[in-house]
Amino acid sequence: MDLMIQGLEKSFNRVQALHTTNLNIKQGRFTTLLGPSGCGKTTLLRMIAGLETPDQGELRLGDDILFSSAKRIDRPTHRRNFGMVFQDFALWPHMTVFENIAFGLRASGKTKELKRVVQEAVDMVRLQGLEQRYPHQLSGGQQQRVAFARAVVMKPQLVLFDEPLSALDAMLRDEMRIELTGLVRDIGLTALYVTHDQVEAMSMSDEIVVMKAGQILQKGTPEQIYNTPQHPFIAQFIGKSNWLVKDKLLIRPEQIQWVRNGSADAYRGKVQSVSYLGDRYEIQLDMGSLGLWTAYDRERKPTGEEVEMYISREDIHEITD
Length: 321
Ligand code: ADP
Ligand code: MG
Fold this sequence. Notes:
Elements lengths: L2 E10 L2 E11 L4 E5 L6 H9 L6 E6 L2 E5 L4 E2 L7 E5 L10 H11 L6 H11 L15 H13 L5 E5 L7 H18 L3 E5 L2 H7 L2 E6 L2 E6 L1 H6 L4 H6 L4 E4 L3 E3 L5 E3 L7 E10 L4 E6 L5 E6 L8 E5 L6 E2 L3
Parallel strand pairs: 3-9, 3-10, 7-8, 8-9
Antiparallel strand pairs: 1-2, 1-4, 4-5, 5-6, 10-11, 12-13, 13-19, 14-18, 15-16, 15-18, 16-17
Helix pairs in contact: 2-3, 2-4, 3-4
The structure holds adenosine-5'-diphosphate and magnesium ion.
The site of magnesium ion has 2 residues, from helix 1.
Keywords: ATP-binding, Nucleotide-binding, Transport
GO molecular function: ATP binding
InterPro entries: AAA+_ATPase, ABC_SmlMolc_Importer, ABC_transporter-like_ATP-bd, ABC_transporter-like_CS, Mo/tungstate-bd_C_term_dom, P-loop_NTPase, Transp-assoc_OB_typ2
């Protein structure tokens, strides 16, 4: 069943954290709310979880109403059957791995075959042998796995993730990104994931919902968001952007082709700086009245060199916002 968000709004002391919002979260998909800090991602997630009361609107799972301001329905968190994974993991420090994972099952009286169900979750996140450890005896990645196992052991209809990887160091974060996406897909979970990190959003999601200042700007696949952003903010926020006309005609760096003695419609610029990225060079170009552009090349270009470029018409994306 899809989660349907209709006309949802929330203010804190006259600060509108979330403007009127409509959104469908599709069952079995990995959907990500992506936007800069303070844009209302956590507020939206907490309202879905039942941890924050909306001012207006309706939340439904299929036909099942979880919240409705008009009908005065507000189902408490523990009866929404959603799993939650937070940035700080929020594990119980005085409980073992086993007891942390078993906690929700015990609290809701689902103690039938408890040992087997918890053990399956432990195996799934590869924590065999660590069942009797306490959270402080685990690495960050292991704690994250416990938090994940605890969230999914109840077989939730939806799992909510709020920046779950941001407390981990860069290398572990890359690893956990792949691991987490794999687990979510293997179990066939419906995931709603919050992050401000565009790389996380692009690499993990089936669908990305881009937010800014309490509003949804665009929803689409990672490819749609990158190739056809509907708002200049999205083009800037995700990947690098060059503008042919300010905020209107977008060219991505990888679409710039180098030419020599190009035709009259070739673009001309001067190499301003070069940075080595390992697999290629990132080149800043002084384009005169067009400002600074970013381009890529497999070879180093000397600074100050005059260069010519060709850009295919179909690679120029018009933003009609
Ligand atoms: P994000 O998760 O995208 O960083 P938040 O949802 O946490 O953004 O916050 C959105 C806006 O609402 C921010 O301006 C924030 O300061 C404000 N806000 C969030 N929670 C509260 C609260 N409990 N009281 C007052 N203001 C809040
Ligand atoms: Mg947040």
